[in-house]
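Sample entry (478 residues):
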Amino acid sequence: MPNSSRILAKFCLLVCATLILGGCFGRSTKIQAPAPFSYPQVDYTLTVGEPVDIPAPPVLGAAIDNWSVEPELPAGLEFDPTNGSISGIPAEACPRHFFAITATNFGGSSSFGISIAVLPEPPCDLAYPVSEVTGVLAFDAFPTLLPTVGCGGSNDFTIDPALPEGLQLNMYTGEISGTPLISHGPQLHLITAANESGESTFELLIEILPAGPCDLVYQESDKVVAPNAEMDPILPTVGCGEAEEWIIDPALPEGVSLDPATGVISGTPAIETSRIVYTVTASNEHGSDSTEIALRISPVFVFEIEQLSGSFDPSTGEGGTQTRIILTEGEDNETYPTKIQLLSLALAHNSEQLDITSVEAGSGLSDLNGGEGPDFFAPFETSTGFTLGIVFSFSPDFTGLSAEVPVEIAIVNYETIADSFSGSDADSITSTLSWGNPLAGEEGVPTVENTVVLNGVTGIIPVTVDSALELIASPVSD
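Predicted structure, serialized as tokens:
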């Protein structure tokens, strides 16, 4: 066979073979798109600094020419375009985001979605400038402590047990600040800095010592008390720390004492004295505070109560009593006899036994203002007693009222509360009157004190003597 014929024959065989392989018998020549694929999981939660290895997804069917991801992976992660695997070390935190991973060949593409969130590193190396705070006194400034924290940082700080009252922990920054208001024995506090990935802790020892006493005040800082009668205790209040020791200078008069444990001044004065100013000091091992209190043992002006009558009918409980209020000036007063311009008083009764029916000007005032009596006489009745204000005269020529002899200031009439007296088989029932106004400060009730005013300006607190009233059982004949 000539060479040309042989070459033609080979060409025909080659063409035929190509046709057979390529579909001489009707088979398709189209390349298939990648088959659906998936990763081991859909959602991934990663942590900054921790290595990541997400293996390539298994592939079935047609070969894949290229892999891609949209959008770009978080910093530090790498995507392998040859097999779709993900690896690396996350470099920064980021919120959860969705990523489309696509496999592509000449026949088309197939995609799979995953989500990735990168959490910050757990906090580490939480530290404060000091590990112990001791020697701070209550009510003194506490050193402001600002922590440092490494790795992933934190904006979530907690402490256990709670800080002493007056100190605060900033939950976002961890700063400790404030002014302690109470003492606090040595105690370890565990401070925790946390984020989504973990936590770091620090132990801080805090001790708050009791403060020295401050704001020492006596409720009555200028008081006149009668001799030879038990005085009402004079009570102190103190702020800040608790006082452990009390002293007074100079020494108190005979019969009067200062309790060295409580600071209360009490007793039964045995002698009369002029007005003496005393210095009281309250102290503990951390400090002290002092205040002055003036005390005079003298019947300079005395408010007394004298009962004129008192009885009740045991069968009905009806009855009443009449008393008079007397003002007297003591002879030892430096200005004796002293002219008085006006006065006020408050007197309380047992409201379960008695009701007030009237308060009238006493006989000692009847000659004032040409027999007209006082220019101002204003009783104010309450459920527990009454207050009374008296201006003897508004005349500029009025020199004042003297009380070197007892002066009857007012007459007070009471009636019995029947339920408290009816059916009693006692020969008598005792009721009490006490100086003062228990309702002082309540709305609509005037705050009136027991005061003697000398010249319209100078007020002197008088000595007041409480009284026990005796109501005699006196049946009323039919």
